[in-house]
Amino acid sequence: DHMINKVALKKFFEQNKEDYYSRRNSGDIKKYDEDYKWEILPKLNSELSKIEICSENSEKIAKLLSKNLNNFSHWIDMDDLQDLSKHPNFYQIFGYIKKSNPETVNQTIDSIDTILGSIFDKKFAPSTFGYLFTAFDCKNFSLYREEIAKEISKICLIEFPKNKGEKYKLVNDTSNFIGNLVNEDGVFVDKNVNLLGQDFIWTEIMYNKNHTD
């Protein structure tokens, strides 16, 4: 996490935590409408953990992802994923995603993109990587939106990364840091740390901009 500015992020957390807690407790979907993440992702983590990653199961995994992720916005790569999953070697991509480590996730993204480019003539957007990592493990990985990544760069007073892996790692490290702060505060405690951190950042940036796409 060489990139994140922990002092600035802690300040962001302290300034916004009361708003976040009151939104989550409000029961008003205009103030907070993010429950679907918790309804879908932890369950999906559990279902995927029971499926062996092999060539025979590749299409099954892609269908399960498609079914569960279709109400996350911008799921433009879903159809691609289902097509790609028919290829006898594509299951290896799911394997790389499942085995990823938050510390080296930027390199994993670069490696997967290289393989996708050379074998399948395809690249994934950072948001697609976010969906895939989170589908397998929302405790260690976070959803990604470019808009949020840009806001985090501003909060951390750093230049916005150009590299796709670095962009994702910036958001993921931030989500982990903020998720742990929320847990320490004890109002909402959740073992899915990165999902919690992502939710905090998303809610405090997007809802307070008065639009909730």
Protein model, in words:
This protein is an all-alpha fold. It is 64% helix and 0% strand. The protein has helices spanning 6-25, 35-49, 58-69, 78-84, 91-98, 105-120, 126-136, 146-156, 164-185, 193-206. The longest helix has 22 residues, at 164-185.
Give the arrangement of secondary structure elements.
Blueprint: H1 6-25, H2 35-49, H3 58-69, H4 78-84, H5 91-98, H6 105-120, H7 126-136, H8 146-156, H9 164-185, H10 193-206
Helix pairs in contact: 1-9, 2-3, 3-4, 6-9, 7-9, 8-9, 9-10
User: Count of DSSP E strands?
Assistant: 0
Provide the low-confidence segments as ranges.
Answer: none
Beta-strand residue fraction: under 5%
Morphology: globular
The helicity comes to 55-70%
Distance between the termini: 29 Å
Briefly note the structural class of the backbone.
Answer: mainly alpha
Major β-sheet profile = none
Question: What letter string, H or E per element, gives the SSE order?
Answer: HHHHHHHHHH
Average predicted local confidence, pLDDT: 94
Number of helices: 10
Radius of gyration: 17 Å
Concise synopsis of the structure shown:
With 213 residues, the protein is mostly helical.
Summary keywords:
213 residues, mainly alpha, 10 helices, 64% helix, 0% strand
